[in-house]
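Researcher: I'm preparing a figure for a lab meeting and need a structural model of a single chain. I don't have an experimental structure, so a prediction will have to do for now. The sequence is pasted below. Please return the structure as tokens so I can convert it later.
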Amino acid sequence: MAFPGQTLIVSLTSEVCNGDFAVVQTPGRTYARRIGMDKADPSRIALESMPSTNARVPQTHFVPRSSATLNKIIGVLFDETMPARSQDEAIPASTSAILSQVTAAAIVAGDSAFPVAPDKGRVLLGRAPDISQLAGRILAFVTRQDIHSSEHFAYLKRLGKQMPGNSSVYYLENVGQSGEGEFVQFPDSGDMVAGISIVDDMWKVHGTIF
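Model: Understood. Here is the structure written out token by token.
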């Protein structure tokens, strides 16, 4: 859901339901987890982890509902701050430097970017710097099939590597659990290649609102 150094956006008023992500404050520790509600035993809640092949992912465990404060996570800002050393999974933050770079927003259509950006959620966008600074970043692209086409396509992808031997063509990696990667070309970066979509516009994704 989020990497170390990124900022979680929470709601202090939204109801937390089964399956929601939330920041959970307990007397001993603060967690950022998916919430499991046990109808058979409403006195406790499960703090679940997303499925992962990483052996260091914390195990699901239960805490008493009466001693936990839950704040629903409604978004993530893709900061790159250095978090303070802490045993907590989330620490309080009152501001985010990345907010000043947000200049636009877009609504997500489809689930190819889930869970980074769910269907009908919103992504927070800013103007992209030079492409040389964007390797591995999540970007919003607007493309067309060729210079004569008037039909445009928009999608979220992670900027991958250049095609060997052609500085204008890059591979775009999928960011979610479904969908596929593809090659695109930037018309100002070199010779055009037939059959590869052309990038007309590009935005850096600074965050997502669920």
